[in-house]
Automatic annotation (TrEMBL):
TM stretches of this protein: none
Name of the protein this chain belongs to: ABC transporter substrate-binding protein
Species of provenance: Microvirga mediterraneensis
InterPro entries: BCAA_transport, Leu-bd, Peripla_BP_I
Ranges in a coiled coil: none
Residue ranges of every copy of the Leucine-binding protein domain listed in the record: 28-374
Signal peptide location: 1-25
Protein family according to the UniProt entry: Belongs to the leucine-binding protein family.
Record bears the keyword Signal: yes
Length: 396
């Protein structure tokens, strides 16, 4: 962890804890449970907390909710599922938070998604993107999300590969973590449904630095388009490995390529190879630019700003649910979340009934943007294939 990251983590935790203990009993407490220090994705968690804090500042400046101030309690789960599970119980049972935002890592949400359902305490994800996070597991579902979803991203990548006339042979390359394996499941299911059959499937460890063996197998199989599901750092190592054997197929990746850890590992030139989807590029809307200018001095990674925007909006949606319900009781908040009567003006968009009893995703493929790195910046990507894609191409 860099000195700046360490200082920010301390500030995030310190500020949140000070707010939560100095407040009055009537304050409405929300929680954040996610990685702030351990994994390459920690910068995303840090940005998420900044977004939540900004939303709380705006909510309280406008008079709070139900005549009460909102405060934040932060827990760093160190990217460890057992720690993340412990944090959930602590936040809900001891801190009495009315909702938990996060986590940073999808695997942790999958490890504890039963807890919000059992305790009837809504959880609104704003970073982790694994498809199964918001899927009902029987009974009432208290898992919601304001972020990208792996399966929607995969649908986009499959659509690009399928509609690209230059595509002859595709290959799947994924990391061996829960994140990578979840992505592989989506790739295989949607690829099969769309008639896209890979000629090679390979895996690599999240800490691997040389993927030339897997790439040579791809090359031998004639793969001209590779679909990659991994975190930022290993994708960076992957494109470095491509350079070693001078093999550069069309590279379509998870949104983790937007991470500074990918850019730093790949370097400026190789970072321009992948094409991916994300929710915000350098072409920000006026509202996004306003929040960016407000948070930029505190961001350890400017590319992580999208998570600040997601978490800002998740906080605003939670506040709207509390206001509509006239209560912080979990079941009443759940009913309100699934039938919000008033639009919620967010950073990403204006949310009109973002959730229902069966739909717990506030952002859909229509909110995503094709993106790539250019001259060290995340900019919109477009070519003839992207221009020709239709909404029906993204069906899941």
């Amino acid at each position: 962890m860099t000195p700046k990251s360490a200082a920010l983590k301390a500030a995030l935790l310190g500020t949140a804890l000070t707010i939560s203990t100095a407040g009055y009993a009537q304050d409405i407490k929300i929680g954040f449970n996610g990685d702030l220090s351990a994994s390459p994705s920690a910068q995303s968690g840090q940005a998420g907390v900044l977004g939540i804090q900004a939303a709380i500042e705006d909510i309280n400046a406008a008079g709070g909710i139900l005549g009460r101030k909102m405060t934040l309690v932060v827990r760093d789960d160190l990217s460890q599922p057992p720690k993340s599970i412990q944090n959930m119980s602590d936040l809900i049972d001891n801190e009495k938070v009315v909702t938990v935002l996060g986590p940073t890592n999808s695997g942790n949400a999958l490890a504890w998604k039963h807890i919000p359902n059992q305790k009837k305490n809504p959880s609104i994800g704003c970073i982790g993107s694994a498809t199964d996070i918001t899927k009902a597991a029987g009974g009432e579902n208290y898992m919601y999300r304001v972020s990208m979803v792996d399966r929607a991203q995969v649908a986009g990548l499959i659509a690009y590969a399928k509609n690209n006339p230059s595509t002859k042979n595709v290959g799947y390359l994924v990391e061996t973590t829960g994140y990578g394996q979840g992505g592989l499941k989506d790739l295989q299911e949607l690829g099969d449904a769309k008639g896209l059959k890979p000629v090679a499937t390979e895996k690599f460890g999240v800490n691997d630095t040389d993927m030339t063996s897997q790439l040579n197998k791809m090359k031998a199989a004639g793969v001209d388009t590779v679909l990659v599901w991994a975190q930022g750092t290993p994708i960076g190592q992957l494109v470095r490995s491509m350079e070693k054997i001078n093999y550069f197929p069309v590279t379509l990746t998870s949104w983790s390529s937007d991470n500074a850890s990918f850019f730093d590992t790949a370097g400026k030139t190789l970072a321009e190879k992948p094409i991916f989807m994300r929710t915000i590029t350098e072409d920000r809307t006026p509202k996004q630019q306003q929040l960016y200018d407000r948070l930029a001095p505190k961001l350890t990674s400017k590319s992580a700003f999208s998570f600040a925007a997601h978490c800002y909006d998740a906080t605003m949606i939670a506040a709207a649910a509390i206001k509509q319900a006239g209560s912080t009781e979990g079941p009443k908040m759940r009913e309100a979340l699934e039938n919000l009567q008033a639009p919620v003006d967010g950073i990403m968009k204006t949310y009109n009934k973002p959730f229902s009893a069966t739909e717990h995703e506030a952002l859909t493929a229509s909110d995503y943007r094709w993106t790539h790195w250019k001259d060290g910046k995340l900019v919109s990507y477009s070519d003839d294939v992207v221009k020709a894609l239709k909404p029906s191409d993204f069906t899941q």
